[in-house]
Amino acid sequence: MKRAILFLLSIAFSSVILTVNAEGLSKDVIDFTIAYRKYKDVIIPQIAVPTAVEVSFDSEFIERYDFGVFDKTTKSFEPYFFKQGTFVNQIPVTVNTSVSSESARNIIDGDVRTYTDFPLPEGTQGNVQIVLAASGPITASTLTVLLDQYVALPNSIEIRANIDGIDRIVVAERRMDQTTVYFPKTISSRWAITLTYGQPLRITEFRLLQENAAKTNSRALRFLAQPTHAYRIYFDSDRQVTPPVGEAGNLAIDKDVLALAPSLSEINPTYVIADIDKDGVADIRDNCVSVANTDQADVNHNGRGDACDDFDRDGLINSKDNCPDLPNINQFDTDGDHIGDVCDKEESRITERYTWLPWVGIGFAVLVLVILFARTAKSLIGKGQSDGKPPDNSTE
Question: What pLDDT, on a 0 to 100 scale, did the predictor assign at position 370?
């Protein structure tokens, strides 16, 4: 069944590639467009000279502010400037974690290039509580957890909010299957988020959307449009992505910027969820992100797939360990059967299973040589007799 699903996924992906290629895109372009979940086709009015244009993203929910401005005329990506909305009364937040980390502040610094690592205990799941403390009440119903590249989501999440001095459950512990978690609108100045994880966890951003904060300006994207060119803006990527662009002008200047009419967003049909090991399981849900394991087997239920677990703790993951249940860092394998000597109960080579067999082979070889020697000798004797004179038995 799983093989059938993978086969269908491969067909679907091939169909995507064919669809994109039908538009004349190169593989290099495809490698970037598949990271985005949505796009906007923007309509450029008649312009006589290159003009800075601005597209509003106020009405869009975006997890990552990574965009791809694609010039459909030249089939290349263009530089852009994203003007992020700010707030007049956003409440300052501090962060503390139950696992000591000097970089904890990185998860609320607004920069996806920084991150906080949470160590993974040996042989069991990790558990961390992240507390966001605000100087005043925050109204929220959305939490987004952004991860570094090729990192799986935590196994589970629980959210509590302190209300009237009592920590109340807002989201009961449940499997975390997407980066954004929604919950009933809640007002609190202290939020405690508990995560359990079975693989190394690296968080770049923790965003608790403050719904009671008022915006001072809008979110918008700017780029330099060329006369008669058509453009498509890809956005809402599920991973960090930076398409190659040429030299950029100063797009932050507000002078002579043409605001474009609002355009509808569309689902990107070429989107392919991140799957670095190509086993058909998305990175964020894969219990072995970098090791292919379609079955997702996890016999000890520690959140790490058996393929990338290390049962014997010898420093080698099971899929690369020729004795996954017994420590053998040297990986000795005398008979070359891919089973380490320390756990090879029955040797694979037949001569090692039956020590008398080589002597039988030697005896057989000697017998063959004797037979050949005898036949050769007989042949030579017969030849010698045929060359000599026959005996003369006649009488006078």
Answer: 79
Q: Is the pTM of this model over 0.85?
A: no
DSSP 295: T
Q: For residue 244, how many other CB atoms are within 10 A of its CB?
A: 9
Q: What mean pLDDT do residues 104-109 have?
A: 92
* pLDDT tens digits, 41-54: 999 999 999 999 99
C-alpha 203/C-alpha 132 separation (Å) is 15
Reduced to 3 states, what is the DSSP secondary structure of residue 21? helix
Question: Where do you find CATH 2.60.120.260 in the chain?
Answer: 93-208
Phi, psi of 234 (to 5 degrees): -90, 140
Q: Which helix (H) or strand (E) holds 236?
A: strand 231-237
Query: CA 6, CA 109: separation in Å to the nearest integer?
Result: 39
For position 180, what pLDDT does the model report?
95
Q: Which residues contact 396 (CB under 8 A, 6 or more apart)?
A: none
CATH superfamily of 93-208: Galactose-binding domain-like (2.60.120.260)
